[in-house]
Amino acid sequence: MNLKILSLTALTLLPLPGHAEELNTLFGYALLVEKGTSLQGDTQVLARFILEPKDKKDLKKDLCNKLELRGPSGAKPVHGKIVQRDNPDPESLPVVVCEALVDFADTYRPQGETWKVTLGKYSYEVTLPTAVKTPQRAILLGDTGCRDKKGTQTCEDASWPFAETIPRDIAKLVEDRVPTILVHMGDYKYRKKGEDDDKSRVWQNWKKDLFLPIAHGDGTKTTSPNLFAVGPWVAARGNHELCRSFGDNGPGWFLFLDPSSTLLGDKSLPRCQGSQETVTPAHRLDFGHGFSIVTTDSASLAEGKANAAQAEALRQTLTAVDQSFGKKGRLAWWLTHKPIFSAVNDPPKIANATEQAAVAALPGKTPPGNIKLMVGGHKHFHQSVEAPGMPPQLVIGNGGVAINCQGFNSDKNPLNAAIRTTSTYGFVEARLQSKEKAVTGWSLNVHAYPGTSGWGQPEVVQRCTYPATGPACTVLKPEFFPVAKCASGDEED
């Protein structure tokens, strides 16, 4: 369910006096989540609402208990409670997040549906997406935040295409009414530039990096696309959403994007407390046409050298994933922010050592048999890796942050893999192929922008298909995949 970002300039407010329970900002969106933690794939639609009160005294009120939702027909659209999420850091994140379970829709609408949100004396309109049980398309993107680093990237559309360009072009792409979900591979917020040392800036930077671009451009342009309305989201956790490093954005992850909820039977546990990193449990989403998505939290995994304890924990998780599928012939993707295979520089450094150790310890030294595609982000380019005996790996880390131009591009490497890299901004559109109401494969179009500023129109530069009789990925525009590498780039992940 996609909630339209309503900033003060875009809010529909009743002209009543006073500020009690009035909002500066309202965001709404929907996540696809799993009920329980047994990896059985019981997929639910969870709508979330971020409330930023005009009067901070309202933060101490039970705003979620006062929230009333009405669907397009005027009926109450939720069954059961609207509950408030635990806020791991109220000082840095002075907002309230309410959530409710909503039903799958019978009909997909690419621009979502308008809902009415009432809070006390004030009423607002938000656009929520329609989620269907059998999506036919997934839009995949990752590493969308802005670096905001002198000499590397400024947070304007001229050097940060996620400010408006990429959301706009994705919105255009999905106007054809094909039921769509959006898959984000993590690293939603980079921006801080020293500002996060002042805790009052943390929430403002979350808004700038993620919610404003996706929800409504800069909050004033009524023609800006609303990606939250396009479809529900599947969110992976990036290393920039860790509790203890890379920006310390863990509290924001657990408040806004973490797929757990007390509404799903999950315990309300402390997040980002103490010295130990909080890990998001693996989860599996099943769809009605034999398609599944499995997501594991790789944000804290060691990359250059395998961590034995982490590798064993991941091996156990993947074993549980394999057992959970049983003999069901489902076609599955494995999402993990840090890709199992990625190649940088020449000769290439092949990451991720911990994930590779976990996979090597499995029967056949490959991921569970239902997994037919591996998707990651983290490296700031687009890369396909086809290693013998392994499902194809896509690295989709080119959604907005400064590009790393050091991606490897050759068949000569320790993996004996076909590795193809384009160091350009872009995203991926995956069309699911079905026969007799069951997904049999997919066709993935890799969209990339031809320039480094001004952008122009994205072009389909590579296509990957499953099943494939030969190589899964075919380069359509070789000029986007140069063999030569640059001497230096934005190496920070």
What does this structure look like?
The chain is 13% helix and 28% strand. The protein contains 7 helices and 23 strands. It is α+β, with helices and mostly antiparallel strands and 493 residues long. The protein has helices at 63-66, 165-173, 202-216, 227-230, 250-257, 308-325, 353-360; strands at residues 23-34, 43-53, 67-70, 83-84, 96-102, 113-119, 122-128, 137-141, 180-184, 233-235, 283-286, 291-296, 331-336, 342-344, 349-351, 371-376, 382-386, 393-396, 418-422, 426-435, 438-448, 459-466, 473-475. It is globular.
List keywords for this structure.
globular, seven-stranded mixed β-sheet, 493 residues, single chain, 28% strand, alpha+beta, disordered N terminus
In short:
The chain is 13% helix and 28% strand. The protein has 493 residues and is α+β, with helices and mostly antiparallel strands. The two termini are 30 Å apart.
Shape: globular
If helices are DSSP runs of H or I spanning 4 or more residues, what is the number of helices?
7
Spell out the helices and strands N to C.
Answer: EEHEEEEEEHEHHEHEEHEEEHEEEEEEEE
Tell me the fraction of residues in β-strands, as a range: 25-35%
Number of strands: 23
Please give the alpha-carbon distance between the first and last residues. 30 Å
Mean pLDDT: 88
